[in-house]
Design a protein that fits this description.
The chain is 38% helix and 21% strand. By secondary structure, it is of the alpha/beta class. Helix 6 links the parallel strand 7 and strand 8.
């Protein structure tokens, strides 16, 4: 059957066996408390599987297994080339099961199958491969010292790393944590979002098949309890989190209440996309601006949710933008032709619709704004565009995490930069201009961890660090800089005489 058809993926979905148990110490286990929760597909509102709702006993078991494996050196004690070989085997197994993993991601999170097969799962595979290939090429230092000393600076794995990851890019965001953490020699306890836990549960078995020892990689699904327990756990050395700013603040508090574990946070965003009057290509900029907010249903921390357009080009640009938005009509995520899928669940659907209602009171609705395809039982919203008269309007300040765009007018470059930086967040930004000097100067002034010039969301390879300023978090995912989060620096001085 043709893989480019809806029928193919519907048939694959009907035959799919889905695992919902936790993976602890090399095996699948039901939650010790016997609890489960329904994993509901946003495609049609139907239950996919009952998933283990892990509690304190399960978290403790996973951390014990991780600590035992670390202390025994079955992973941390391997030389980097040996870890590399097993990680590459794991990546190969993930690629071998790409269609299965992509289908789990689509059913679980409502993401278009065309994206999960080409972006999400291949991106996770690439991340594991990249850090596997890098780890045996990263060395230490011989530091300058007095002649009677030899000074070595080395990096060592931290120990037990907890990773708490979100629902919008379930396997990709998880790989950005466990890829470098495992490559560096740590043991990992992964807590996936209860909204999209299925790919994490499945890749744990593939890790075991690849020869990663029992206890080194564990998965504890559940609601908010496992994440809080990991943040409070005295035997967790580091917690890496991607999610909302409010939860990130709580995690920092829990770390302070326990063992002052290292906490790395990749949090929210309200990213500005600035179109200057000398934009080199208005058509491409409009298409890109639509993709920046409507890709992945707007469920992206880097979403270009604030579009700043110069007054001189605003009318022409908005015509092109609305035309581009029409191309993101929601459809069945199992159809490879679909460009925009379902909102992850009823809770998020209601949240987004609430912001749209707020927007109707404080801005002009230019396109969309309605829930659609209710007859499917799923959670779908039209791409929505507002012309916002004041940049401090609620929909222009708060992270919506849905397909809702605020268009803001400006008159000068200085005003655009001021509006762009007037935010609690600083994850990403973009500027469109034909002037190279303007591009450099505005990029330097924007308080964001990533700035794109004449593009948006480019640089999908692993060479560029990713993270934010201000309340968008700390630390960086991706690139060799990510290894800094999961290692300790040690100075060793040897007296020669």
């Amino acid at each position: 059957m043709d893989k480019t058809t809806l029928a193919y993926w519907q048939e694959k979905a009907a035959a799919l066996a889905i695992e919902g148990r936790a993976f602890i110490d090399g095996e699948y286990r039901s939650a010790g408390n016997g609890r489960t929760f329904d994993c509901v597909s946003p495609i049609d509102g139907k239950v996919l599987v009952k998933v283990a709702d892990c509690g304190e006993a399960d978290v403790n078991a996973a951390v014990r297994a991780a600590r035992r494996a670390f202390d025994a050196g079955v992973w941390s004690g391997l030389n980097p080339r040996q870890r590399k070989a097993k990680l590459l085997k794991w990546a190969a197994l993930m690629r071998e099961h790409l269609d299965e993993l992509a289908l789990l991601e689509t059913l679980d999170a409502g993401k278009p199958i065309g994206d999960t097969t080409t972006v999400d799962v291949p991106g996770a595979v690439y991340c594991v491969e990249w850090f596997a290939e890098a780890i045996d090429k990263v060395g230490g230092e011989v530091a300058p010292a007095d002649h009677h000393l030899v000074g070595l600076v080395t990096r060592e794995p931290l120990g037990v790393v907890a990773a708490v990851v979100p629902w919008n890019f379930p396997i990709l965001m998880a790989s950005w944590k466990f890829g470098p953490a495992l490559a560096a020699g740590n043991s990992v306890v992964l807590k996936p979002s209860e909204k999209s836990p299925l790919t994490a549960i499945r890749v744990a078995q593939l890790a075991h098949e690849a020869g990663i020892p029992a206890g080194v990689f564990n998965v504890v699904p559940g609601g908010g309890e496992p994440g809080k327990l990991l943040a409070l756990h005295h035997d967790v050395d580091c917690l890496a989190f991607t999610g909302s700013t409010n939860v990130g603040k709580l995690i920092m508090q829990y770390a302070g209440q326990s063992n002052l574990k290292r906490v790395w946070l990749e949090l929210g965003g309200k990213s500005p996309n600035i179109v200057l009057p000398d934009c080199p290509d208005l058509d491409r900029a409009a298409r890109t601006a639509a993709g920046a907010i409507f890709y992945n249903m707007g469920e992206m921390c880097t979403a270009g949710s604030r579009l700043l357009v110069h007054r001189d080009i605003k009318d022409a640009f908005l015509d092109k933008l609305v035309a581009a938005a029409r191309g993101y009509a929601p459809g069945n995520p199992l159809d490879p032709k679909t460009s925009m899928g379902a909102i992850v669940d009823q809770v998020q659907l209601d949240r987004v619709l609430g912001y749209i209602e707020a927007g109707r009171a404080e801005a002009k609705l230019l396109h969309g704004g309605a829930r659609v395809q209710q007859e499917s039982g799923g959670f779908y919203i039209e791409p929505t565009v507002f012309d916002v008269p004041k940049h401090d309007a609620k929909i222009a300040r708060e992270e919506i995490f849905g397909p809702v765009l605020s268009v803001i007018t400006f008159d000068t470059v200085d005003e655009a930069v001021q509006i762009a930086n007037d935010s609690d967040y600083g994850l990403a930004a973009a500027v469109w201009t034909s002037n190279l000097t303007t591009a450099h100067e505005v990029s330097r002034r924007l308080r964001a961890g990533t700035v794109w010039v004449n593009c948006y969301d480019e640089g999908g390879d692993m060479n560029f660090p990713f993270g934010g300023y201000k309340q968008s978090g700390n630390g960086r995912d991706k690139s060799l800089h990510a290894l800094e989060k999961y290692t300790e620096l040690k100075s060793t001085l040897v007296r020669l005489r």
